[in-house]
Automatic annotation (TrEMBL):
Residues 4-129 form the Phosphotyrosine protein phosphatase I domain. This is Arsenate reductase ArsC. Keywords: Arsenical resistance. Pfam families: LMWPc. SUPFAM superfamilies: Phosphotyrosine protein phosphatases I (SSF52788). CDD domains: LMWP_ArsC (cd16345). It comes from Clostridium paridis. InterPro entries: Ptyr_pPase (IPR023485), Ptyr_pPase_sf (IPR036196). PANTHER family: ARSENATE REDUCTASE (PTHR43428). It comes from the Bacteria. One of its GO terms (biological process) is response to arsenic-containing substance.
Amino acid sequence: MNKPKVAFICVHNSCRSQMAEALGKLFAGDVFESYSAGTELKDQINQDAVRIIKDLYGVDMNENHRSKLLTDIPEVDIVVKMGCNVVCPFLPAKHIEDWGLDDPTGKSDEEFIKIATTIKEKVEDLKNRILNNEIEGVN
């Protein structure tokens, strides 16, 4: 069975979607492939997000992550919108959902930790829904 491809998307692809890609690879890499992308590029990903993910989960996003455009990733089966509070980017997929997460950029470490923890829980939930064939058209 080919693993479904999941794209975590938001406008800048510098914070929440990057955390989701990293945590998807870490906690659900056995079930789905994780990608992240956006409609605008940033020179570097959010360094507070990098620090928090490294502190919490031991993953250094500076090693393998960079801001990517939607056209930089392969065709995907599942699109997860991070919660853009504006018009989220569109990417065609068999299944699309919106996690509605607030952007912690410029906020306290506690906000970053809260968002990172929520993303981890949502990644694990997505993994379980894929394993249990609860997402139509995927598997």
